[in-house]
Amino acid sequence: MNLNKVIRSIFRDWPIKIISLLLAVGIYLVVNYVVLDTRYVEIPLEVIIPPGYEVMSKVPTSVTLKIVGDERYIQLVDPSAINAKADFTFATKGGTLSVPVLLEAQESYIDLNFTLSTAPEIIRLYLATVDVGVE
User: C-alpha angle 32/36/39, rounded to 5°?
Assistant: First the structure.
């Protein structure tokens, strides 16, 4: 078989081959990405305030944890093994400050195939400096 016949056989019926390829890619994407499941769990939020500051706004006590992944994996997640923190220790002056919610999970969850996020993702607080009276 010479090179000319090989090239002709590759390009023969090319519309059908392209449609078949697109259909195969579409099926792959549906199987891998559309069958993801979502689980919502309420977990406590630890808010860390630096010394010398006082919170003048409402402090949230919990956040909603969103777990997205294969149903086999997300049902294995123990919400008590995941901690949420909002760390305001970087504050150098009072006012409205925003920090992202940081998630810490046990090492046993690192290799599982799922995604964690929180709602809200950012915590905003109004901090005021505490005046310490000198006697």
Answer: 160
